[in-house]
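Technical annex B. To support the medicinal chemistry partners, we prepared a structural model of the target in complex with fe (iii) ion, based solely on the information shown next.
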Amino acid sequence: MIDLHLHSIYSDGTNTPRELVEHGVKLGLRAIALTDHDTVRGVDELAAAAKEQRMDFIPGVELSAGTFSLRKDHQKEVHILGYFPRWDDKIKAALEPLRQVQIWREERNRSIVEKLRGYHVPVTYEELVDLAGSNNVGRPHFAHWLIENGYAHSVGDAFQQFLTPGALTFTERKTYDIKGSIDLIRSAGGVAVLAHPKALHIFSDDDFEKFLKDMVDKGLEGIEVYCSVHLPADIRRYERMAQKYNLIMTGGTDFHGKMKPDIRMGYGFGYTKVDDSVYDKLRAKLDSKK
Ligand code: AMP
Ligand code: FE
Ligand code: FE
Ligand code: ZN
């Protein structure tokens, strides 16, 4: 069993990279990958812990690449996973542009704070940084602040009222677009993978294939077939797409610790179990890029 989609305190997870490694060892995982949103700041710690525990790991990232719209009433965020063959100065240097993404994120966060305060919700940016444990504040941290202070009864409710596109204080965040994100990952020697495709809510095969083909033309090399939100029919669908477009298949739970308490590392909602062979194939692909 492996888990190639994990978040740490360096984005909106609640575990340190070291804790992820230790938990992975306890679960008997063969390999893990850290895929924090728009940052690789946790990878040094992951690499050190994995080396001590002799666990196979992949340095990774999950890039927000703007939104995709099928129709007027359909707007979904595109997330692209980047997996890198090793963790060295060359790759770190190639990923320097991620600093800009952090700046865009902070600008967006401060704008949400201002809008909330405009609606007499007395949140401060500093409280969110406290809650997040770092400067890397994300909307789930806003959601938790809103719950703790009595403005929402659940994460879903907080997103519905305030944080999702169309909601009261939703603010678009500048990101690299799909091409820019794929180029960034590939220029660092990485493999670009479409994350949790089901979350795009594209139900017709024709529409999905049009979208996927465009991404493949832009340099996409993989698709996350196995993940918590994918049911058996989804897995069959994306396996079929992977074969048709010659894409590597990856898998992981999208574990966020206490931020998404229903998702367990390694098991997702209970039925996700990603086979070791998925790691072996991705590792072979990464090694072929060296
Ligand atoms: P951000 O990167 O700060 O824009 O926030 C993205 C995070 O918000 C991701 O972890 C998503 O899983 C989470 N998210 C996005 N939409 C929702 C939603 N409707 N309900 C719960 N979580 C969401
Ligand atoms: Fe997240
Ligand atoms: Fe995601
Ligand atoms: Zn994720």
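Notes passed to the chemistry partners:
The radius of gyration is 18 Å.
The mean pLDDT is 96.
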